[in-house]
Specification:
single chain, D-tyrosyl-trna(Tyr) Deacylase, Chain: A, 24% helix, six-stranded mixed β-sheet, alpha/beta
Length: 145
């Protein structure tokens, strides 16, 4: 399971021109699911996302996580994150989850996130989405478990 987090001042996701999820200050998480991912990996990634220290403390150092700041979390499925790009000019997706498994793991991740954090918004799995954001910093990290 892979996640790309971006610290944002705001982010939203639209499907067919309608906003389906939005947050103010917080994290945008682009989530990629691989075929061997399970609930344990989802739990581990979620814990990392919620605690990863990307927000500034009173001294201006990145020492605070999303749980400590109370910011929003926007979770957007992103199949292309699991692409193998090591060789050639065309991405390979052999490690990617099937649509059914990917959706199951995405829904599990989102459900757990909503249980553990008060401000969670989502995109729509499998949809053609338009994501807007104002990256703060910019601060972007690739997380793998």
């Amino acid at each position: 399971m892979r996640g790309l987090i971006q610290r944002v001042q705001f982010a939203d996701v639209k499907v067919d021109g309608k906003t389906v999820g939005e947050i103010g200050e917080g994290l945008l998480l682009l989530l990629g699911v691989e075929k061997d991912d399970d609930q344990a990996k989802a739990d581990k990634l979620l814990d990392k996302v919620l605690k990863y220290r990307v927000f500034s403390d009173q001294d201006g150092k990145m020492n605070l996580g999303l749980k400590e700041t109370g910011g929003g979390l926007l979770v957007v499925s992103q199949f292309t994150l699991v692409a193998d790009t090591r060789k050639g000019l065309r991405p390979g997706f052999s490690s990617g989850a099937s649509p059914d498994h990917g959706e199951k793991m995405y829904n599990y991740f989102v459900g757990c996130a909503q249980t553990l954090h008060h401000d969670v918004a989502t995109g729509r799995f499998g949809a053609d989405m338009k994501v807007s954001l104002l990256n703060d910093g910019p601060v972007t990290f690739n997380l793998e478990v």
